[in-house]
TrEMBL record:
Keywords: TPR repeat. TPR repeats lie at residues 117-150. Pfam families: TPR_12, TPR_8. Transmembrane segments: none annotated. Residues 1-51 have a biased composition (Basic residues). Residues 1-89, 197-216, 256-279 are annotated as: Disordered. InterPro entries: TPR-like_helical_dom_sf, TPR_rpt. Residues 52-89, 197-214 have a biased composition (Basic and acidic residues). This is Kinesin light chain. It comes from Paramoeba aestuarina.
């Protein structure tokens, strides 16, 4: 082997050693990096679990607080209803107002929203009984908004609140808008009246379900008669004599004919007959 050949051979050997070392170092670095990445991933996973645990604890605590709040509210509502039955309207109003303040800003599930809508309606009734029609109107409007979102605009719960709102507006001499609300309520109620009548006919039995439907229909009949009477009174105030007569006649027919199912005055009827005698 010539000198030149030996030198070339040595050169090749020298080149191979750094290359292999470099490769080994690279692999070592990758292994080290992999271990580091594994530790980082594990740490992130643990952090995520910890955050989830803390979040669950916070939600549980919040749910517990909310449950306690709802219990207190229900106690206040029951106390308010009791005061209202006993004729202590001021105390009833205080209880209802406190209950409203406690829950007005809460994000409530649907069941609690239903209770809140009923609470607002009860507060509106109490204000109306106290002659505070402006406040009554405000609470009926709030209740109506919630009920429309929960049940839809064609539901009987909505019709009931519309009727109350119409009465409050009529007391505030807002006859036109009151008439609109009462007519909308009447339309919903009359539709439900026909539907329940068909259901009772189809049932043709004396079971518990049929009995419940008949009671529901009697209650609905009283509401329809009362709405017709209120619409008649509003029409008189607006100078619509023919319209008033139409509503009064319909109310009287309802009590005398359909009203046999709808309920008599003694059962909570509207007393349309007496009103017509006076007129």
């Amino acid at each position: 082997t010539t000198r030149l050949g030996r030198e070339k051979k040595k050169k090749r050997k020298r080149k191979k050693i750094p290359f292999l070392m470099k490769k080994k170092r690279k692999k070592k670095k990758q292994r080290r990096g992999g271990r580091q990445n594994k530790r980082v991933r594990k740490k992130k996973k643990n952090n995520k679990k910890e955050k989830q645990r803390i979040g669950d604890e916070n939600r549980e605590e919040e749910s517990k607080k909310q449950g306690e709040l709802f219990e207190k509210r229900d106690e206040l509502v029951n106390k308010g209803e009791k005061s209202r039955r006993e004729g202590d309207l001021e105390e009833a109003k205080k209880c209802f107002l406190k209950a409203v303040e406690m829950t007005e800003q809460q994000q409530e599930p649907q069941r609690q929203q239903q209770k809140f809508a009923n609470l607002l309606s009860s507060l509106g009734d109490t204000c109306g009984n106290l002659g505070e029609d402006e406040e009554a109107k405000k609470y009926f409007e709030k209740s109506l908004k919630i009920k429309e979102e929960l049940y839809g605009k064609g539901h009987l719960e909505v019709a009931e609140t519309l009727s109350k709102l119409g009465v409050a507006e009529n007391n505030l001499l807002q006859e036109k808008v009151a008439k609109e609300h009462l007519e909308t309520a009447l339309e919903i109620q009359e539709k439900a009246w026909e539907e329940t009548g068909k259901e009772i006919e189809e049932g043709k039995g004396k079971g518990k379900e049929t009995g419940d439907k008949k009671r529901e229909r009697r209650r609905l009949g009283n509401q329809i008669a009362a709405n017709l009477l209120n619409l008649g009174n509003i029409s008189v105030n607006l100078g619509e004599g023919l319209g008033a007569t139409k509503y009064y006649k319909r109310a009287l027919e309802f009590e005398e004919g359909e009203g046999e199912e709808g309920g008599s005055e003694g059962e909570g009827g509207s007393g349309v007959g007496e009103t017509l005698v006076v007129l």
